[in-house]
């Protein structure tokens, strides 16, 4: 079986080097200048662009949060990102809001 390589387009900067994390539900998050992009890996669909940083994002990390969920308690997709100034933002990715 041959697997064709695919790439994810997006504005990147050398300052975003290493700002990528594999997350739950087949998602990845990566720094794209001063924003965070969330992409569904299988379809390569851009799901969210999270913008609140004033400087280049240098780190992203999915948070292990609410691993036990059901219809009454839905899964929460929390993501932490930091920028060159040291500012850390925790995002609720499903709602595109920071906490």
Q: Strand-and-helix sequence, N→C? A: EEEEEEEE
Envelope shape? globular
Strand order of the largest sheet: 1-2-3-4
* Rounded radius of gyration (Å): 14 Å
Number of helices: 0
Strand content: 35-45%
CA distance, first residue to last residue: 44 Å
Q: Compute the average pLDDT.
A: 81
Structural class: mainly beta
What percent of the residues sit in helical stretches (DSSP H or I)? under 10%
- Count all strands and give the number: 8
Main sheet properties: 4 strands, antiparallel
Q: Uncertain spans, ≥5 residues at pLDDT below 50?
A: none
What key attributes describe this structure?
99 residues; mainly beta; 4-stranded antiparallel sheet; 0% helix; globular
Description:
- The protein is an all-beta fold and 99 residues long.
- The chain contains no helices and 8 strands.
- The strands form 2 sheets. Strands 1-2-3-4 form a 4-stranded antiparallel β-sheet, with no helix packed on it.
- It is globular.
Q: Secondary-structure blueprint of this entry?
A:
Layout lengths: L19 E3 L4 E6 L2 E6 L4 E7 L5 E6 L15 E6 L4 E5 L4 E2 L1
Antiparallel strand pairs: 1-2, 2-3, 3-4, 5-6, 6-7, 7-8
What would a concise description of this structure say?
With 99 residues, the chain is an all-beta fold. It has strands at 20-22, 27-32, 35-40, 45-51, 57-62, 78-83, 88-92, 97-98.
């Amino acid at each position: 079986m041959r697997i064709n390589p695919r790439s994810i387009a997006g504005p990147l900067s050398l300052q975003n080097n290493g700002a990528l994390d594999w997350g739950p539900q087949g998602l990845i998050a990566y720094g794209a200048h001063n924003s965070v992009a969330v992409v569904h890996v299988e379809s390569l669909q851009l799901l969210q662009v999270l913008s609140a940083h004033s400087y280049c994002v240098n780190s992203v990390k999915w948070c292990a949060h609410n691993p036990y969920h059901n219809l009454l308690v839905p899964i929460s997709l929390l993501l932490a990102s930091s920028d060159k100034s040291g500012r850390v933002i925790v995002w609720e990715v499903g709602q595109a809001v920071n906490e």
